Amino acid sequence: HHILSEFLPDEAATLACGARLARALRPGTVVYLEGDLGAGKTTLTRGILRGMGYAGRVKSPTYTLVEPYSLPNLYFHHFDLYRFADPLEWEDAGFREYFNRESVCLVEWPDKAEGFLPEPDWRIALRPEQTGRRLTLVAPTTHGQACLAQLTA
Ligand code: ADP
Ligand code: MG
């Protein structure tokens, strides 16, 4: 089972789904999070962070490109690359070092930095369905599949 598909009727469902995903995420995981503006990407990320025990504010790193969180068992780096334009910035800002074995990196708008990002362990898409959303999760790597197995066990 390398695929998960779930209908999320409302925002609460998106947050709950994020909390569930949080329990399966291990350090060293790269997550691509795809979907249009307003699809619920940041809401899902908020749910993941809540599920990891982070009680503070989760704001969209629209201008800073990344918001780092230091959690008890791992680092969590939330990227929003919607405004990513300058490839030089990638090296200058040291973004490459964020992708390491101690960190979960979750990337909104990964297509904006194609060629710079490591391959994803999970590829999550959020699409409108009725008045809610459809979440689809694909795990292309063995690491991602092992995480997903935790979730569906
Ligand atoms: P994105 O980061 O993809 O641009 P946001 O998470 O910032 O999207 O905003 C998504 C909007 O959609 C928020 O207003 C949120 O309340 C709403 N939303 C989130 N999940 C759902 C859902 N499953 N059904 C309906 N509305 C949702
Ligand atoms: Mg967002």
UniProtKB/TrEMBL annotation:
Pfam families according to UniProt: TsaE (PF02367)
Main localization of the protein described in the UniProt heading: cytoplasm
Gene3D superfamilies according to UniProt: P-loop containing nucleotide triphosphate hydrolases
Signal peptide start-end: none
Location within or outside the cell: Cytoplasm
UniProt keyword list: ATP-binding, Cytoplasm, Magnesium, Metal-binding, Nucleotide-binding, tRNA processing
Matches recorded under InterPro entries: P-loop_NTPase, T6A_TsaE
Domain of life: Bacteria
Family (UniProt): Belongs to the TsaE family.
UniProt-recorded name of the protein: tRNA threonylcarbamoyladenosine biosynthesis protein TsaE
